[in-house]
Amino acid sequence: MIEVKNLTKYYGKRLAVDNISFKVEKGAIVGFLGPNAAGKTTTMRILTGFLAPTTGEVKVAGYDILTQSLEARRLIGYLPESVPLYTDMTVHGYLEFLARIRGVPSDSLRSRVDEVVEVCHLEEYYDVLIGKLSKGFRQRVGVAQAIVHEPEVLILDEPTIGIDPIQIASTRQLIRELGKERTVLISTHILPEVSMICEHVIIIHEGKIVAEDNIENLSSLISGSRRVRLEVQGSTEQIAERLRQIKGVSRVSYQDPNFIVEYPASLDLRSKIIDAVTQGGFALLSLESMEMSLEDIFLKLTTEEETEEVNG
Amino acid sequence: MTNIMVIAGKEFKSYLASPIAYIVISVFLVFTGAFFSLVYPFNTFTYIETSIRGFLQPASIIVLLLGPLLAMRLLAEERKLGTIELLMTSPVRDSEVILGKFLGSVGVFLVMLVVTLYYPTMLFIFGDPDPGPIGTGYLGIFLLGCVSLAVGLFGSSLTSNQIVAAVVSGGILLALWFIATAAQYLPQALANTINYFSLSGYFPDFMRGIIDTRGIIYYLSITALFLFLAIHSLENSRWS
């Protein structure tokens, strides 16, 4: 449905997107994962026709975004990261305007707007000026405009940024539902979000694609190993040795004053770790699970992780 | 065409919802009204002529300056709000965006002109004016308004700062208006050529009731030129 070939974008002399190629199959929900300034927004702006690529080719449903731009754009619903809204318009005025310039016929205009207002739970705000809405509701209006013309492809740039946790959950739910009958490309820098919403992940870093796979295969990368951080009183070498002897532990490292113990996600070794420490006569001061952060993933993908190994 | 009208309609409504249109229209009416009544003082009935020249002459300068103020938000605000991203990723041509916005602002300008119709109406009630110059006068001021709004829209397409947009387009308009004044210090042949590009050169004919096709064509070409430049500037922003 979306086909990107050797896409490169320079802003002046600054390279934003570096020769990336990928495909998004029809009906897939694909996550575009990367830290800030990785090139996600630039790529999405090119996919939607807002920016022209420096070199490379983008096709949406077979239409070239440069030469058959109008045909391609007709099929795309886009929520930019900044959630742009005409603050002087009412919710329904705004949705109606965008529906019309995207070719929704006037006889079905009303029903389309009513439908997306219902889907996005904006009924109470139908006649309210957008400028008076809170951030979360503005986000919903933004999603509503992206789907008002029933696009086959949805491109959502950081759709859960800057809204409160409850609204994040409902937005994710909404995206999952929208993805049932559409092709969705969603960008995010929040790691768990990808596994919650997407089937397929493209990881982008400094303008380059560093990994691309379905969520099961990447999950070993993303959540395949579990890590706990513990603080123990006693000899570092002896404690590390004891920890290393626990069956299943894949790695022990020491970041003063904490030990970090890594083991496969299929196991839960926390009680064994506590036993090992206490039976060795050491005092366990704290133990906590560590979330694998996006930075960790990138470190894994782009470099060898280098933490201070305990000798032996 | 429908896209153009949808965008024009949206712009027109936005003007009515924001204070800028009312302020611009009020300023226009206050000044033109003052000039109109100063030419026909109420204490004498011995006015020289029943024409609207007293209103048109100052109106032309005011239109020149108010056009950029009306047009400055058209694209600059979209850039500031980021909504330009929605417009430029919707299946509408850049030319449709520009023409729609232009027509929306022309609509507001027409409302402004319609309100001033009470000046000639009073002349018709209390006197016996020649309708010819009044008609051509209005045609001239309308065409000048189109020029002013087109230049204003072009200025607005260059920046996300409305003030910058207004200053740039105001500067272009004043240059085009006063170019003839500067040209008189130049050699005759050169001055003649420059006069041809002067906005102010054609306006007196309209006030006198003369329909000079050169004037009409000139105003329409300048309008078209700056609309074209605005389209180009919008297209260009995709390649930044």
List the helices and strands and how they pair.
The complex is a heterodimer of chains A (about 300) and B (about 240).
Chain A: E1 2-11, E2 14-24, E3 29-33, H1 40-47, E4 55-60, E5 63-64, H2 69-74, E6 76-79, H3 91-101, H4 106-119, H5 135-147, E7 153-157, H6 165-178, E8 183-188, H7 191-197, E9 200-205, E10 208-214, H8 215-223, E11 225-233, H9 236-245, E12 251-255, E13 258-264, H10 270-279, E14 283-290, H11 294-302
Helix pairs in contact in A: 3-4
Chain B: H1 2-17, H2 19-39, H3 53-71, H4 73-81, H5 84-89, H6 94-115, H7 118-126, H8 131-157, H9 162-183, H10 188-196, H11 203-208, H12 213-236
Helix pairs in contact in B: 1-6, 2-3, 2-6, 3-8, 3-9, 6-8, 6-12, 8-9, 8-12
Q: What string gives the helices and strands of chain A in order?
A: EEEHEEHEHHHEHEHEEHEHEEHEH
Fraction of residues in H or I helices of chain B: over 70%
Give the CA-CA distance, first to last residue of chain A. 53 Å
Describe the largest sheet of chain B. Answer: none
- The geometry of chain A reads as elongated
Count of domain modules of chain B: 1
Q: For the terminal residues of chain B, how far apart are their CA atoms?
A: 28 Å
Radius of gyration of chain B: 19 Å
How many helical elements of chain B?
A: 12
Assembly classification: heterodimer
CATH class of the largest domain in chain A: Alpha Beta
Return the CATH architecture of the largest domain in chain A: 3-Layer(aba) Sandwich
The profile of the biggest β sheet of chain A is:
6 strands, mixed
